[in-house]
Design brief:
This protein is mainly α. Helix content is 38%, strand content 7%. The chain has helices at 26-35, 44-55; strands at 2-3, 15-16. A two-stranded antiparallel sheet has the order 1-2. The longest helix is centred in the C-terminal third of the chain and has 12 residues, at 44-55.
C-alpha cells in the first residue's frame, strides 16, 4: 500500500506502509515482553480502562 505523505507532488514524499495479521500466542507475547527493555511505566488508569473494556467484551 502506498500512502501520500505531506506533499504528494514529489515521489520523495511518499511513504510505503506494510501490514500483516498475526496470531499472538501467550508464548509469543511473553517473548516480545521479555525482549522489550524500554517499557514505559504502568499507568493504573490505562490498565483499569483495558480491564473494563475486556469485561464488556470489547
Amino acid at each position: 500500500m502506498i500512502v501520500a505523505g505531506r506533499n504528494a507532488h514529489t515521489s520523495e514524499e511518499w511513504i510505503r506502509l506494510r501490514s500483516k495479521v498475526q496470531t499472538v500466542t501467550p508464548k509469543k507475547a511473553a517473548e516480545w515482553l521479555e525482549a522489550n527493555t524500554t517499557k514505559r511505566p504502568v499507568s493504573r488508569s490505562v490498565v483499569r480502562g483495558f480491564a473494563e473494556a475486556m469485561q464488556r467484551g470489547e
